[in-house]
Amino acid sequence: MTGRDEFTGSRTNRAGAAPDGPVGGGRLPALEAALADARDLPDGPDRQVALERLAERADAAGDVRSGVDARFALIEAYLLDGERWRLVEPVRRCRAAADHRPELLTDNETGLLLRYQRYAVEALLGTPRVGLDQTRALLHDLAHRVGTDGPDAPTVAELHCRIADHLGDEPTARHWYERWSGKRPGPAGGCPGCASARRAELLAGWGEWRAALGELEKRDGEPEPCTDQPERDLVAGLLPALRAGERERAAAAHVRAYRRHRREPAAFPYLAAHLRFCALGGHLERGLTILTEQLPRLDRPSDDLAAMEFAAAGALVCALAEEAGLGGRPLPRPAYGGRPATDPDVSTLGALLLGVASELAGSFDARNGTGHHSGRMAAWLAERPLAAPVALPADDEPDEPDADGSDGPDADGSDEASGSGERELMALTVDMITAVLDRRGDRYLVEEGDTVVGRWGGVVIQFRRAGERGEVLHARAMAARRLPATRRSEAYAFCNAWNHDRLLPKAYAHDIGEELVLAGDVATDLTHGVAPAQLTVLVDAAIATGVAYAEAVAALP
């Protein structure tokens, strides 16, 4: 489970799930074949267009089941491509079909449609391209379906709260916050592991710094299996800690969280908090470095809200740098599309970013009928450093004390854990595998049976210990793209060619019924032990070759 970007539960990728055959009423064979072909297309606009046309054909032919299947696949394609703003119409059409024929959907599909409906409502928060009235209608419909006492009632309360806050209606937002606070999200809700971070962000927006930090400290018992943690909580508490006078805590949180967010595509919405910390914490040099490093992401933002906040936070860094006499420093801006590469100075870049933030804030306010976001961005730009800067921890500093209770290197400057210990042979453990992924800044889950699972682009990779004594490192890579069972001979030919030309991973096709999973294995015998440095090389290689394998699968015609 993930936090902000937690799309899971794909109905087309369910191994062992019940068939999606008609429940009263048949499908047209031509539409079934066309749907299989459309699902087989590579990710991107071509697949979306094919699915959109197929849904229209199904409507025209009166094949309701195929129309729903096409729209479910279309919703998944929009989510995969980061286009949640497109969800409203296909969700509305699926909902109308299911209401007209209640027997149409399986129990699993009914629950999944509720989750998709939540995604469609949340899309309003990220972009002004979704209508306010449309979203309110979907939210009221969702509230009616889950009821006041159902398991998803907290989910509805959260959505009401966040939308009211988005519109600048703090009293209404606080009303719904009381009905949401302290309650666990239902099946259609967001990630339980990130609920505290979402609440802390609201409290921080209302100026309640200590309450925001307290919300993050309420966790007890076993941690939620969330791949965004602990960095999600760290960044949510970043500015509240700084404003509450806990500068060292904020500095440590920033360094640890940015170590991961630096290169994680899904972390773009968190970069504004890192930039604002640098601005308000007096770390302008680091702020300019982060802005330069992350500026290319603004050309391909995950949503408009994240782009607006990143641009405003970047403009604040530039404004403070200009006040500090750094306005003439050139900052590289890479080429994008038809725009050539340039080297604007800090002052010029700040003006460009201010224009982006102002334009997006105006778009949100025009849709919402308020001036809330323009005012909010203006308030950000009027902020000034809160206190003298404190020293930042080194980027390679360990996050936790060593097992002996020390905080790092020994008094003589050596560090057994990261120096000679990196070359010392030891028995393979799950903790060693997760430590490598932690250092890389990767997201992962540890599933039952001590299997470590993560996703890198178009590949899901599982790491586990195999063998009688757990002495074999086994990595299994599974390409996200699947092929219909009718292409079995092509899949076998692809795997044979891959195995002939490459050493890793060992490729094969796994038949799960109507679809083929193209997977690959890498197994390394570590009977005599493995050094942490060696394990890092093995994990890096497994991920690199797994990603290359998935890219080759995605490139199949």
UniProtKB/TrEMBL annotation:
Question: Which superkingdom does the taxonomy of this entry point to?
Answer: Bacteria
Task: List, as start-end ranges, the regions of compositional bias called Acidic residues.
Answer: 394-415
InterPro entries (UniProt xref) = Put_sensory_transdc_reg_YbjN
Q: Where is this region: Disordered?
A: 1-28, 391-422
What Pfam families does the record point to? Answer: YbjN
Q: What is this protein called?
A: Sensory transduction regulator
